[in-house]
Amino acid sequence: xxxxxxxxxxxxxxxxxxxxxxxxxxxxxxxxxxxxxxxxxxxxxxxxxxxxxxxxxxxxxxxxxxxxxxxxxxxxxxxxxxxxxxxxxxxxxxxxxxxxxxxxxxxxxxxxxxxxxxxxxxxxxxxxxxxxxxxxxxxxxxxxxxxxxxxxxxxxxxxxxxxxxxxxxxxxxxxxxxxxxxxxxxxxxxxxxxxxxxxxxxxxxxxxxxxxxxxxxxxxxxxxxxxxxxxxxxxxxxxxxxxxxxxxxxxxxxxxxxxxxxxxxxxxxxxxxxxxxxxxxxxxxxxxxxxxxxxxxxxxxxxxxxxxxx
Length: 310
Fold this sequence. Notes:
By secondary structure, the chain is α+β, with helices and mostly antiparallel strands.
């Protein structure tokens, strides 16, 4: 019988393999036939493949090897092993899919469905701990040393690649490639983060007890209660709650029915670290008296509703 750690590794590598296969199918059956580029090393490989005829599978491995060697010394071995496995599976299936009939020769279909499938495949690889592109390794290293964000670094690489593609194959191909990249990145975010991307709501209200009880009863979410003081409105109670994007509408309905003058700020949460408790029994019996669930969150942009109490 497998231990949990072994089973976890099997699931990780199975997910990485599936993602690599889906990404390879998107590249060979949608993008390559229409000379539409992916970003990063694969994009460079597609350009070289079109100019020289060298198989893309060979180019993908050859171009990624230097990045893996550098990454081995600077990044965790588990990440490098998973990335090497992903690139190997990806290259093998590029070769398998290459002789097959193209899925379409229509550029718009290639952009839409190629981007959708590529984003799904790459998202699965990242979700299970690997990566398919050496530029991501460079971006991670630069982030550690110079504090450039990984996303910004990858974007700069890709803009350079698409600009070169514009001169080499025509700017219509560069624009198709840029559109594909946009679709891929959006789908990748959904696959990696999940459809139930987490949100954080901060509520300033005079009816904190009733609102928190309704949130717990109807949404199954616990609430952190804090004291605050407005510059004009004086002392207020602040409620903090972490929930999914699909629960925001229900949250607004709860607050509207209880305190229509409440101030609500809703933020994206990129990560939750610690114990995040949902309702599974009586609220009073869930935690020791006086304790709160531990939630450490990293938030991004926010949207605000009804500012009169701020």
